[in-house]
Write a structure and sequence with these properties.
This protein is an alpha/beta fold and 404 residues long. It has ten helices and 20 strands. It folds into two domains: 72 residues, ACT domain (Alpha-Beta Plaits, 2-Layer Sandwich); 251 residues, Rossmann fold. 28% of the residues lie in helices and 22% in strands. The longest helix is centred in the N-terminal third of the chain and has 17 residues.
Amino acid sequence: MKILQSPLLVSSVLALFLTACESLPQVQSAPNAQITKPAINEASSELVTRSQVVATVKSKSVAVDLERQALEWGYTLHKQEKLAGLDLYLLTFDCPPGVSPKDASLELERLQPKSSVGELNKYSLNSSKVSFLPSQAPKTFANEMLSWPKSGCDVPVKIGIIDGGLSEKFREQTSAKIYNKSFIEQAPSETAVRHGTSIAAILTDPARLKNVMLYSAAVVEQDENGNDYSSPTAILKALNWMLLNDVKVVNISLSGPPNKVLEAALDVASDKGFLIVAAVGNQGQNSPPQFPAAYNTVLAATAVDVEGDIYDKAVRGHHVDFSAPGVDIYINIEGQNRYISGTSIAAPFITAAIASSLGMKDYKNRDDIIQYFSRSATDLGPKGKDTIFGLGLINAKYICNTER
């Protein structure tokens, strides 16, 4: 082999070699080395923070092991909490510089396969159209449309809502027993409280449900731009609180992207007999499935109008389970007549039917609910289950008594 002897030629080759090395992605091959993976350009509006990830594990020993391995790879444990109701440990990590939350989630799950790790995604309320019509006689077609027993139904179990919180005036005026807890650091916005109060008003209306014990978790706060959102950690803490208080059925009107931590927690809750109803979302027919409604442990609720036509903003998909009234629904809150629309307004009708059903004691999971209510549901679309109406309009005629 001929040896290069020209200093100029050697310098040129060396320069090319160094340039090529600099252009290659740096790969981390040992603990304590700085992680320099390229950050994925996620839109900051979709994440609570771009500097943290959250993880759940099922034992203290695995939590300790995950913390140790994460520390070796440049992560910092921000917070660790035990969620006794869910039998999970919740850990929040600060990501190393230059590492995106998405890459960090994959890295930590690789380091500890027994963990579920996810980004701190934002989950939005399924905002509803609200109109005030105080001069008109209220249109109260929802109960009739569902064939709800005229005398109303007693509720043998505790009901939960994970939403924007309740107004103080509503809590003072309602005949229901209200248990309220906040899982956010700041006071919720007026819009979030109005939304949560509307859901509670449907669930506690004496014409529908009597002797209600309602657990309300406020999980919605505002970002720096004044937009309402919730996070996986707030939702998990709310689920944990409800499990500790033996809540049986919970209504969630939040929607967002898939999240492994949220999914893992919902799996645990379902295994414990927790029944969850979630709105499919108001992102429109061209939207991808929204979560948590699209998880197979959750009952997905969509909205129809008085004619049985689908709400024009409702998300569609194979995950849709049942329909309920959700367009121009009359609600009286604190002396104001309101007509509200949205999939979030349909969900509590299904939650109410489940909670007051005579078959409640026999329900173990979502599949039991589907089997029970599919026998009487009114088919609204193509025969059988479809991506628009699911199994059809839920029927409440015989949920709590056999005579009307």
